[in-house]
Amino acid sequence: MKSSVAYSILYHNAQKGIRGLYVTVEQDAAAFLSQMATLGLKPALVSDHLPVLDLGRGRELHEKLAKKLKDWTRSPVERPMTALLKAKVSQLRREFGFELLVIDSWTALILLLEFEDLRRETFDLFEWLRSLGCTTFVIAEEAEGEEGLEEEFLADAIFRLRLEAVTDVSFQRRIQCSKMRSANHSSDFFTLVFENGFFEVAKAIS
Predict the structure, then answer these.
(1) In a domain, 92, yes or no
(2) What angle do helix axes 80-96 and 59-73 make, rounded to 10 degrees?
(3) 191: β partners
(4) Which pLDDT value is given to residue 67?
């Protein structure tokens, strides 16, 4: 429920008038919003404060726009899809003034942007995200057997979600804040419960 947790944060802030932008790369926006509605959320009621930017659909169109953008800027440094992403999000930041941003997901994004030098281009993208002046959530998934992601050193905070077996047939969703710069926080895993349209965090009981 990584996407659900992230959208829920933006959704409940949007209800208070705080603007957000949800960027989906691997899931169709309509299907994603339908999924959020099954949780009891009502995306249509907050659409003015929480639009969804769908980068996964119409990739051919995005590539054509990126090609035009490259022709206009004639920049030899940045690849067209990266320039297009930055142009779209920066424009929305200026005109719409969102304060919260979600990118879902990191794995799909680096495939879309066709990173060649992963470390350098990741650093450059994180620096650009910081320059926007808003709080950004980047959703990522750890491959089985991996311990952490190479990009984690760039993040100011890291929250981990996992399913924990409590019996042979019973599982709990759990959440952990494994990093938060300049903050004295617990690194324990807590139980994550979703009820009546809200996520709640409680002390984990084995």
Answers:
(1) yes
(2) 90
(3) 174, 202
(4) 57
